[in-house]
Design goal:
Blueprint (H helix, E strand, L loop, with lengths): L6 E6 L32 H10 L7 E6 L3 H7 L8 E4 L5 H15 L4 E6 L2 E2 L3 H17 L4 E6 L9 E5 L8 E8 L3 H9 L3 E10 H6 L6 H9 L2 H9 L6 H6 L6 E6 L5 E2 L3 H14 L15 H9 L3 H6 L7
Parallel strand pairs: 1-2, 1-4, 2-3, 6-10
Antiparallel strand pairs: 4-9, 5-11, 6-9, 7-8, 7-9, 8-10
């Protein structure tokens, strides 16, 4: 089928990374949101995600959603992006409104846009596998503008800290309808899900901007209208009246009929949401003797590997800022 491929990439980077606050304080005691930290001393996680995004969309169509209060970290880091591609929220009201504001902004500029959404807190040992899957998702979404294509990672183990997507059928590399989402199951349930062909939910998806906006049902009509009408100065007043909205829990769940899941081959994927997951990732990198290629970056960033090591060794850092549970 011939179709117009008009891919945009949206990197989600507006969160505060609260579960990592014990690990992401700099030498002044200031918490640095995880997306502005590096894993091992190189580019920040946000810069890594933007490089991933630039592999599937031209730079003029690579956007990121951030928070105004984090400007001290992203201001210089994002200076190479077109100004209109930096979608800054006056405050964080959850992933739901970050996604909604971004989709409204992109749709205003390009009503035919196909948007690939990806978070800024992932690690991958094989970027090529993920980039190929992102491109496939964009192609499917461009050809079928009534569906949203969610990426599911083929699991390495029955992990109880991750979310799962249960497909309607095991279809290999072909898309499958989504039966349901399962968040952080017990170990018994996780093993059962793997036997049923469940995939890890990476919170990565592609769809026409207009279709993604349809996920926000009539409950959000007034908010969508206000976002479309609001000038930059008015957004802060609008956000004052919003309650937190989680995109995965409050928006995606219940809309499974609009979704298709694509299975991503094993690529060493993990999210970096907790100290425990960062520790596990660093151990696997060491065991596999993976060397991270050097890439240019704007300025040194807080090194999560270094901070994790300091906490493991029990240095004065934990006495100054309070102990954290590295098993969390």
């Amino acid at each position: 089928m011939k179709h117009r491929l008009n891919t945009w990439a949206l990197v989600l980077a507006g969160g505060s990374g609260s579960r990592l606050h014990g690990l992401t304080r700099n030498s002044h005691g200031i918490v640095v949101p995880k997306q502005f930290c590096s894993l091992q001393g190189g580019p920040s996680l946000l810069q890594e995600a933007l490089q991933r995004a630039a592999a599937i969309a031209p730079m003029q169509r690579v956007c990121t959603v951030v928070a105004d209060q984090h400007r001290q970290w992203w201001g210089e880091m994002l200076s190479y992006l077109p100004e209109e591609n930096i979608i800054s929220q006056p405050r964080n009201r959850g992933t739901g409104y970050g996604v909604l504001l971004s989709l409204v902004r992109i749709a205003e500029r390009d009503p035919d846009a196909v948007v690939v959404m990806l978070p800024a807190d992932h690690y991958l040992s094989d970027e090529d596998v993920m980039i190929q899957s992102l491109r496939e998702a964009a192609l499917y979404a461009s050809a079928d503008r009534n569906s949203i294509y969610v990426l599911g990672i083929q699991p390495d183990e029955a992990d109880t800290e991750l979310g799962y997507i249960l497909p309607a059928q095991r279809s290999g590399q072909k898309p499958s309808a989504v039966l349901r989402f399962i968040e952080k199951p017990t170990s018994v349930r996780a093993r059962s899900l793997l036997e049923q062909g469940a995939l890890w939910n990476a919170f990565i998806m592609a769809g026409a901007a207009s279709t993604l906006l349809r996920l926000f049902d009539s409950r959000y009509d007034s908010t969508v209208a206000a976002m479309r009408a609001a000038h930059r100065a008015d957004i802060s007043r609008l956000y004052d009246g919003l309650r937190d909205l989680d995109f995965s829990r409050d928006v995606l769940q219940g809309n499974e009929s609009m979704l298709q899941v694509l299975s991503v081959p094993k690529c060493g994927w993990t999210d970096l949401g907790t100290p425990k997951r960062i520790g596990m990732t660093l151990e696997r990198i060491l065991e596999a003797e993976i060397t991270t290629p050097h890439r240019p970056y704007v300025a040194p960033h807080l090194n999560l590997a270094h901070e994790y090591d300091r906490l493991q060794r029990g240095v004065e850092y934990s006495e100054k800022f309070g102990r954290i549970d590295l098993r969390a």
